[in-house]
Amino acid sequence: MYYHVILECKNSLNSKKPKYEIKTDIQDIEFLQTRFIDPYEMGESILIDGKTYDIRDVNRIRIYKSEEDSKILKKRKEIQLENDRARTAALGVFVGYFPNPLYAAISSLEDVTDNLIVVAKGTRVKKDREISVKNEKSEGFKKVFIVHGRDEALIHEVQNFLYKLSLEGIVLNQQLNQGKTIIQKLLDLALDPQVGFGIVLYTPDDLGQISKELEQTSEMVARARQNVIFEHGLLVGKLGMSRVIALKKSDQFLEMPNDLSGVIYEQYDSSGSWKYRIAKEMRSQGYDIDLNNI
């Protein structure tokens, strides 16, 4: 997989016409994160091909991905543009301008900017605690608690995602009872020093409605199982709000608890971009994670 970055900057010669800088063929997503995404989100200067760009001069950053490297993409675009030029010339039409083939090739690829950049330019602030856990790279966090409903496929997908990161996904019903109740098992597992994060899977497993005595409606809405909401609250109480994230998977409206203010939610998508967002959250909480393993 290749990632390509297009940096749109202010042009000192002509302020109305932006200047573009292109960095191609990035295969290390950690490099992409530290050299482009982090500086952009935190409002720091960006270094590209030996030149430093003040973040105030950066209008926009776009990130694309491809299966082929930029040399192949550029050559293919050059052939296409030459064919277009010959075709218009045969019709007696002469076009004086054709786009930069590399820019045209890259900008026509799949745009993954929104999957990787999750906050506006310069709005992400490094918290003292986040800085310390990143520097310490805690060796203890090797497990992640998974709260789930009835979607077995999603459970396995999340477990496989964690496995690729060399982490163990703890699923409650896969643990030995040892004479304990469900609540006792959850509380004991949440106190495991190797558990530093929880993922709560919200799936439309149940249907519910407001009591007819309170509101005249017969509309049923999809919601997660009650045990999911209950266990979500327990995890937040044990691990803290910043260490628990809810993953919503539903093509329809899914009722979410409105009394857990500040809860972090991520939307499931088939492209798998949710994995990067959750991995970044876990890394900010002290997990030693290589995003290239996703």
From TrEMBL:
InterPro entries the UniProt entry points to: CAP12/PCTIR_TIR_dom (IPR019302)
Keyword terms: Plasmid
GO molecular function: NADP+ nucleosidase activity
Protein name per its UniProtKB record: Nucleotide-binding protein
Species assigned in the record: Acinetobacter pittii
